[in-house]
Amino acid sequence: MLSDVEERQQTIVNHLKINQFARITELIDLVNYSEATVKRDLVVLEQSGLIRRVRGGAMLVDNQKIDVPYMMKITHLEEESEKRYIADIAANLIKDDMVLFLDSSTTSLHLVRNLGRFEGLQIITNGVITAAMLSEFTSAKVSIVGGKIVQKRATINGAKAYNDILTYAADLAIISCRGFDFNQGVTETHEGEALVKRAFRKQANHLMVLATQDKLEQRFIHQAIASHEIDYLVTSQKLTNEQLKKIYEHHTECFY
């Protein structure tokens, strides 16, 4: 359990993750502590390399380093036009009567709104909110993998989830990622999440990666999917010639 100090500092970081910059007065109102306390928190967070203090406030240094609680992310879904665009493209690769693996990412939540037009879908997901939305807004038969829910992330992952996924077979696995490296493939910050995506790849005929621009050329500690295992990459902008060359070397189709 987080201490009061850690929880307050995490609240500040989460706010900056969404807004990128905040004034001191804004943070004081957010955490309901004194100016002196907030300034001390900012010093600690800056020393940790998460934020940078600037005149009158603070800004995030690297939004790839930290996770935002899942419920905070989904409150901003309507602002995520890039993810909606990617989801619209991805939907064109789906057909009636498919069996799909769908991960717990917010990009997948955008895809859910496109799935209501399909008939006969069967969808297996490790996302708690994803499963609920699929059940509410589509006619698909929805299954959720077994295991423990990761705190504040509304996702199920780890060894138990991995083994459960191995009991299914799918036509297409659809995943997002924390980082996509054109040489190494999909990487994650959490080992359990990487494990689930490896299981999806193992049990699916094809795999589609949905990647926003900020995920490209990023690499994290846990390898999930190798580049040559990816059938489709969906992103929001045309890739550079060098990036396309690497994609084609792995026989991956790119859509944008």
UniProtKB/TrEMBL annotation:
PROSITE patterns in the record: HTH_DEOR_2 (PS51000)
UniProt superkingdom: Bacteria
UniProt keyword annotations, A-Z: Transcription, Transcription regulation
Record SMART domains: DeoRC (SM01134), HTH_DEOR (SM00420)
One Gene Ontology molecular-function label: DNA-binding transcription factor activity
InterPro entries in the cross-refs: Carb_Metab_HTH_regulators, DeoR-like_C, DeoR_HTH, NagB/RpiA_transferase-like, WH-like_DNA-bd_sf, WH_DNA-bd_sf
Protein name: DeoR family transcriptional regulator
Gene: glcR_3
